[in-house]
Write a structure and sequence with these properties.
Layout lengths: L4 H5 L8 H9 L7 H8 L1 E6 L11 E8 L2 E8 L5 H6 L7 H16 L4 E7 L6 H5 L2 H12 L6 E10 H5 L6 E5 L3 E3 L3 H9 L5 H8 L3 H6 L5 E3 L10 H19 L4 H14 L7
Length: about 280
Amino acid sequence: MEISAAQANEAPAETTTLAWQKTELARHPQRPHPMDFIANLFTDRSEIHGDRAFGDDAAVTCLMARFHGEEVLVIANLKGRTTKEKVQRNFGMPNPEGYRKALRTMKIAEKFGRPIFTFIDLAGANAGLGAEERGQAEAIAHNLREMSRLRVPTIATITGEGGSGGALAIAVTDRVFILENAAYSVISPEACASIMWRDASKRALAAEALRTTADDVYRLGCVDAIVPEPEGGAHTQPALAAEMLGKILRQSLSDLQQLSIEELIAQRQKKFRNMAQFYTS
């Protein structure tokens, strides 16, 4: 769906679209958070704290763990369930120290040859003044570069929202999966509507135009596969949703481990370089 000049100048009536319905499912208050999936899939978890530069970001967790007996690194953003937890974790929006902590632990995993799994459910990185002062853009950019050349298998899963560079900063991986009712976009529908029509209530139209659904981003080549969910959404049967994801992660890791390090890096870099290319005759 393209936004015409006429649409940009005249705010349309509020409506409901499939893309917005999917966005609401991705944000469902009972939807499993990344840590819910991790608790079901990984054992012997041991958390690593701090970025060795500023502090420890409560919005990002980094865990050494075991996946079917194999030692791995798991990275995820944490949103919190209660109001107190949400405030503590900044509603799951990482600060630069969170991204630096993630990269620090990735380098540890690379040193010891441990595969890396990341789980993403965030509206975006923290855009506050403090985050900008501490180098938010630099931290994200550094992660994008370094993740593109990590010498271990890497797998990312978008379990809810995958918002902008905040999500991409831990999603430059060999395989990127998205749950059936998750969303992946460069900007939130509300923010897009505010820019296009000066009216955030036009979020449903914006969601449709942004092509945020799992089907959309798969067709665009931004993800490698869509992970099915239980009927009604992952929140209806969280344990089953984790089991369905776990099977795909296990097979994907096995496939990646058959490739040499040079093949992994070459395929990873080629995939991301080919995204969003645009040609005209």
